[in-house]
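Students often ask what a holo structure prediction actually looks like on paper. The answer is less mysterious than it sounds. You provide the chain, you provide the ligand, and the output is a string of C-alpha cells encoding the 3D arrangement of the protein together with zinc ion.
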Amino acid sequence: MAPYASANPITSTVPFDRDGTHHGFLRLPCSREDSAWGSIMIPITVLHNGRGPTALLSGGNHGDEYEGPLALQGLAHDLDPADINGRVIIVPFMNMPAFAAGRRTSPLDGLNMNRCFPGSPDGSPTQKIADYFLHTLLPMANVVLDFHSGGKTLDFIPFAAAHVLDDADQQAACVAAMEAFNAPYSMLLREIDAVGMYDTAAEEAGKVFVSTELGGGGSATARSARIARRGAENLLKHAGILAGEIKRENSLSIDTTGPGCFHLAETGGMVEFLLDLGDTVSEGQTIAQLWSTERTGVPPQTIAARSTGILAARHFPGLIAAGDCLAVVAAVA
Ligand code: ZN
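The corresponding C-alpha cells follow.
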C-alpha cells in the first residue's frame, strides 16, 4: 500500500510529506456506464517546505462557483515552495463531477457536497470525497479555507465568513483568520441548517476555518476573482506559511445571526428587486416585488424587509419559485 493511501478508495498520486511542488490527482475509482474501470481524477497540488503549519484550500465544493477555483488554479501555478514555510494543499475542484458539469450538485449521485459530511468510504462518489476530506486531508491541516459563491441561483456581496461556535477561543481564531482574508465584508454567520456541512466537520475537528461567499450568478467578475486571490494569499500570510504583509483594505463587519435576516419566497413569479446588493435596507422597506407570469393586470406581491441592514444576498435568476431564497439582509455590526 502506498504511504499516502487511506482506507477510503481514493488515492493521491502526489506525496503530502516531500519538499517541493507536486501536481497530481486524487484518484477516485468509479466504474460507470461511460467508463468501465474508470476513475474520477480530482486535481490536487501539494507544496511543502520546512516545518510550518498546513493550509488546506478548496474550491468547487459546489460546481457552479468560480472565484475559488480561479484563485486556487492561480496559486497552484504561481506559488514557489521556496516562498513558503509549511505546507499548502490545494484542491480547486473539490466536487470534480459537479464542477465538470457546471452544476451545484454532482450529476453522478445528485448529492450536494456541502450537505453530505461526514460522507462514507463506501458510499456514492460525493460521499467518498467527503469522507476522504474528513479523514485524510483535514487531519493534516491547521488552517482550512473553503471558497464559495452564490452559484447560478444566488448572488452575494463579497464576504469572508466565520461561524458562531460553542468554543470561544476557536471562534476568535476563526474570526481573526476571516479578518486576515480581508474581503470587503466580514460576516459572522449562523447557518440555516449546519448539518452535513464541510464547515461544521472542519470546525468540529478543531480547525481554524474560513469560508466565503464572493459573488454568484454562475460566473466570476474581475473584482470578485481579485478578492479571492488576495484573500487566499492573505490567509497564508496570517497562518505564517507565506512571508509578507497582509494587504488590508476596509472591511465592513456584518452578521446574519439575528431573526429576520433570511427572506424566502412564498409564491413563485418574476422578481423585480427594488434594491441592489450592498444597498441599505430598513425593516418594513420593500425589497422586491413578484409579478405574475401568467396574466396581466394583477398587482405584484411585495416582499418587505424583516430586519434592518444591507442587502447581502439576492436570488439571481429572473424567475423565482415558492421556497427559494429571495434575499438575505445582514445587520451591520
Ligand atoms: Zn457554495
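The two ends are 52 Å apart (CA to CA).
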